[in-house]
Design a protein that fits this description.
Length: about 60
């Protein structure tokens, strides 16, 4: 059996990676806008989600005519 280990970030690490406050991330988790991994009382977010959110929020530049 192959074990795939994925990097999980704390709310503080995730917020820092996006340049947001931890409170903002906690609010988005509470509103179920972000998928989380719950380990007992601990909440973690997948590191890949940072890149995904940045990609979704990126607007391409307009090409010159």
């Amino acid at each position: 059996m192959e074990i795939v280990r994925k990097r999980l970030l704390t709310v503080e690490e995730f917020a820092f990676a996006l340049g947001q406050k931890p409170r903002t991330i906690r609010q988005r988790i509470w509103r179920r806008e972000l998928p989380v991994v719950r380990l007992g009382r601990n909440v973690r977010l997948r590191a890949e989600l940072v890149d995904e959110l940045i990609s979704r929020g990126t607007t391409p530049a307009i090409e010159e005519r």
